[in-house]
Amino acid sequence: MTSQPNILIIMTDQQKATASHLYGNTFCHTPAMERLAEDGVLFEHAITPHPLCVPARVSFWTGQYPHTHGSRRNETWLPAGAVHAFQLWHEAGYHCGLIGKNHCFEQPADLALFDTWCEISHGGLPADPTCKGMPWFRPLNGVRAAHELRRTMPAQNPRFAYATSNYPLEDYSTGLVAGQTVRFLEKHRHEPFALWVSFPDPHEPWVCPEQYAAMFPPDNIELPPYREDEFDENAPERNRALYHMLNWAEDDPADVYGLLSVYYGMVRHVDDGLGQILDALAQLGLRENTIVVFCSDHGDFMGEHRMQCKGGLFYDCLTRVPLIIAWPGQLPQGEREQSMANLIDVVPTLLQLQGLAIPPAMQGRPLPTVTPTLPRQAAFSEYGAGGPPFTLADLAQLPQPWGRRTLIQTLRWREAEGRRKMVRTRDWKYVHDPMGDKDELYDLVNDPWELQNVVDEPQQREVLADLRLCLADWSIQTEDARPVPLPEVVPLPEVE
Questions:
Q1: Domain locations in the chain?
Q2: For 244-257, what is the mean pLDDT?
Q3: 463 near 457, Cβ under 8 Å?
Q4: What is the mean pLDDT of residues 178-186?
Q5: Can you name the residues that pair with 442 across neighbouring β-strands?
Q6: Is the CB of residue 101 less than 8 Å from the CB of residue 200?
Q7: Is 411 left (phi over 0), alpha (psi -120 to 50) or beta?
Q8: Domain spanning 6-226+251-374: CATH superfamily
Q9: d(C-alpha 235, C-alpha 438), whole Å
């Protein structure tokens, strides 16, 4: 055991909080997540700073909002010279590692900070599968075979595709990442390490082992509620455009249930991978000296609002993520923190727990319950880079049937459009975009599925005014995280 606490960040991709029974799901039990929560603190209301992979990941590691670090699209990765956690851990003498999906670091100076690097993403191994620090523990041909279906499976309809297969579990990205992590822990248990375990699942392409999909037959799946006229002319135009591309209102119910069974099968496979890692920590005597974080970068509709995938909106299924922090013997155990949290708060929390200085440029703050910090009342998220709106008229110019092809065809346009921002409290959510046609306001107490936009209701004027002020204050407070030298404050002489 080392004197410095190890850091183990376990991140999934596109796993909404409510994909687990810990956050209210009625049919997807995640026992390993539950086990970790019993050892630590579960955050009920954790929010991603941006519901898109790259901006969320850059924000996580820099502790900054996207409008500060500049990564607002999937095409703009961590900028050169940005201060991030792995710089600080490398300087503190930690063995730094990544196992799994990257989608964040690309600068040579940043990549050089990693002593171990084993990368795999949604479609399988990269073109150059060479690892740094340790080889993959499985033959690469078997891994490639297990991922071939992700690139070749036929679509059930214009909107989505899903499939199951029957390869060795260790050859799927989830089994491979989990098994590689166990071997990393065995190899580096006697030195301080900071390891990012980054599962590519349950992000699409939606393929999972047959045995995991079989855990979720149609009779066991509970579909989310919906409102038939939710996306009529009173809904924001951006929401309506996405609904036209992603909705499954007229799809075969068997395909809808089939897709859900694969998504939740992927979630359960990941959970079993988490269990493998927790077992290894216990068996190697690392549990009491390792701070473990479990989270996801953002969520997925997966049935809510009769859609699947994601697309730049701010419903909880896209912005609310699981977050658990555990360090047995050092942090509270089995507690559920009810205040608002953001993924940009995780790295500052870890640095404080390690006794390392938090850089002034980090906008995240240590989280309550796991540190002596007061609860916070609001969390924020954002999307867009100031580009022109994608309208229904623009959609009408594209060939039908609209669906996955249209989603990809318009992806970069929609990632950049607008400058929308969200503020969420435990009871309310407000979304504003000065380039949009309509704001959004949801009463999360009486309408937890966010089916009714009440922004125009007169009785909500006071709530709306408070949330607008809160969002404006946040925008001003975070407009520049680069510290400016200030003059020394000299006490004024007393007036006689």
A1: 6-226+251-374
A2: 97
A3: no
A4: 98
A5: 429
A6: yes
A7: alpha
A8: Alkaline Phosphatase, subunit A (3.40.720.10)
A9: 8
